[in-house]
## 1
Amino acid sequence: MSRDALERDALERENRILRKKLERTKKNLREMEDYRERTQGFLRQLITEFQANEIRLQESEHAAQQASQAKSKFLATMSHELRTPLNAILAYSDLLVDEPILAKEPAVLQDVREIKRAGHHLLGLIESILNLSRIETGQLDLACETASTRELLTGVGQFIEPLASRKNNKLFIQHCKPDLTIHVDRLRLRQILLNLLGNAIKFTKNGNILLKIQRSGADRIQFIVEDNGIGIPPGEQLYIFEAFYQVRESGDTDGVGLGLSVSAQLCQRMGGSITVASNLGEGTRFVVELPISCDGHA
Ligand code: ADP
């Protein structure tokens, strides 16, 4: 074979290889193009679904907001409608209790006192429901002011002492030294402590109840309410802060399971927390931890 013919042969072989490579590259390109189109289609579909979900989410948020507003409005109206006649019942039963004729009728007087007690109980429940609704809808404003912890605890103690001794419980108050000045919504804190102490008394007989205050780090404070009453089963301790939850074994027919839930939400609103530790048959300890100053939470 001549040299020219050999060279042509080699060139043709090279051309064939190149053509094959070109065809493979074209095929790859077509596949990539195909893949790109499919990915784009998939992306478009994802975006459409995402937008549809976004619209559905906004609609359901709007519906939830409207339902929550309707619920708050209903609760506010309902509690107003209930409170007005209830206050009249309480005012009239107050008048009746002081009525001289009733002094000679102890059985009737006892019935009137029972009406008063039940009326106050009902008023408390209405207040709790209203509080919970206000907190849930972010309508609860805090009124922070400077308060002395000694004065605060003494006031709470004076109120709760007669209730404690009615069940033959001893109340101990442990102040911190030196006395602390805190910046807090005094009424809300009092409400939390009275609720915890009320529970401690309710679930303890012939026992000891302790209200104690102590610092926690540089800028927080702890209020501790401890009793040696019936205690709370371990499996129930997680749930007692839920609204309307009551421990069945406690046999409590007085409350409705709102006190702790309102207290926990109030603590949270004040930038703090509430925790429980309890042993069945031995007693319960609640710790309310709050910032020393409620600035930034009001
Ligand atoms: P209630 O108004 O029904 O007492 P709470 O929300 O205050 O509702 O409390 C929820 C439940 O937690 C109570 O029903 C009771 O079973 C339990 N509980 C709360 N405090 C104590 C306590 N100090 N000792 C034992 N059980 C308690």
## 2
Amino acid sequence: AVTDGVILQVGRLHPTAERELTATYDALRLPAPGDERERFLAEHGPHVSVAVTGPGMDAELIGALPKLAAVINLGVGYDAVDVDALRSRGIVLSNTPDVLTDCVADLAVGGLIDVMRGLSAGDRFVRRGSWADGARFPLQRRVSGTRVGILGLGRIGRAVAHRLEAFGCTVSYHNRRRVDDVAYAYAASPVELAGSVDALIVVTPGGAGTRALVSAGVLAALGPDGYLVNVARGSVVDQDALVTALASGALGGAALDVFAAEPQVPDELFALDNVVLLPHIGSATVETREAMAQLVLRNLERFLADGTLVTPVALQ
Ligand code: 8YV
């Protein structure tokens, strides 16, 4: 084996991954923060060579593992892992791309249809007896044929765009770099994109590079008839500005699967019928989560065998 040493499980993982980590690799589980964790790290920290995580690892924890050589992340997004701390020590990182692309894209389109056509709001209307009482449900907005902007045209963004083409939508996008092999119109900035579409779908990575990319100005450009869908990370949107825009009617509506400080959702949003609130379930299907767990295990197996990863993250 390239590395010997302890395999550490950091936070809860998919049951398949947890079972296999214990059964095949005798992995140890990091205790929750507190005295027990301190004692655990003092005893086992020096021997840990690989960490497998879903919730992430901060610089302090990485610093407590002097022999750490690899971090295997369950999830395509790795913004909760302190990559600066990894980079400076040459620790390698893997994530779980591709296997979740379809499910996240499905949820993005589902969120768009929900917020524009009032699926969740209509369900609430029926359940509380308003329909039976003779009340009228407000007219909604058409989805087919609308103009949709994709913020972040990576794997998931392309899968969203592909689905929207079937709805006859006009897709445009903004991305760090213009993408050569697509025919969608490119907008030079998020504000320019938001100003030219009926709905904006956020599918960028999280982290420092995209913090509050969807600013108050972007929300204003989207406007009172505009809709926002976020299946990326809460940090990509200025959440205070979003709450203000939704509460004041300056933004038409939003479908949100991610939030700034999960699982906390701003109270102000609970009363708004034009907001769809989801508990971070983009990848959360039986099929996709199993595939993510298998990819985590394949990364671990490969790293222990030859020091390489199946789906490495380029940490430049
Ligand atoms: C979570 C996700 O990571 O892949 C991502 O980036 O946001 C999700 O799949 C999932 O909760 C696993 O921890």
